[in-house]
Specification:
The protein is mainly alpha-helical. The chain is 44% helix and 0% strand.
């Protein structure tokens, strides 16, 4: 399809609902968190066209990236830890240190690898800039393809 504005976008509230839509045939394709998909991949219930990662996944080297197929996109599914505006510097440092300690833990790395989740560690102003850039990119794209005005 050359004109993506002709694609019907269906919003789901979570990965389970999206997978139900795919398995029931109410949608033909979906984009989702790979860690939620690989059980269905291993059972043979779904096929994965591409991962939107910068490189192939270490544990799934046979699945090509979107870039390898000519689409220059990366769609990282990231999570953030947020505190209320005006939180003390001490509280922010406490949580930053706690998350950094967790991110360095070998057990945490093993859990990520088992779930086919690539590490993504970003903190402070770097994370703020990343989130702001992501919001701007998604807003621009959503307007271009007609999801929002």
């Amino acid at each position: 399809m050359e004109d993506v504005t002709q694609l019907k976008y269906v919003s789901f509230s979570d990965g389970g609902e999206a997978m139900t839509g795919l398995m029931s045939g109410s949608v033909e394709a979906l984009s989702g968190d790979f860690s939620e998909m690989f059980g269905f991949l291993e059972s043979g219930d779904i096929g994965i066209i591409a991962v939107m990662a910068p490189e192939r996944l270490k544990n799934f080297p046979d699945i090509p990236t979107a870039r390898e197929q000519g689409y220059d996109v990366v769609g990282a599914n990231w999570r953030g830890l947020y505190v209320p505006a005006g939180e003390s510097d001490e509280a922010k440092e406490f949580w930053k240190a706690a998350i950094m300690t967790m991110a360095e833990d070998p057990g945490f790395h093993a859990a990520l690898e088992e779930a086919a989740i690539e590490p993504f560690n970003n903190f402070g102003d770097d994370m703020h800039d990343f989130v702001a850039g992501s919001i701007a990119d998604v807003t621009k794209l959503s307007k271009e393809i007609g999801i929002i005005d």
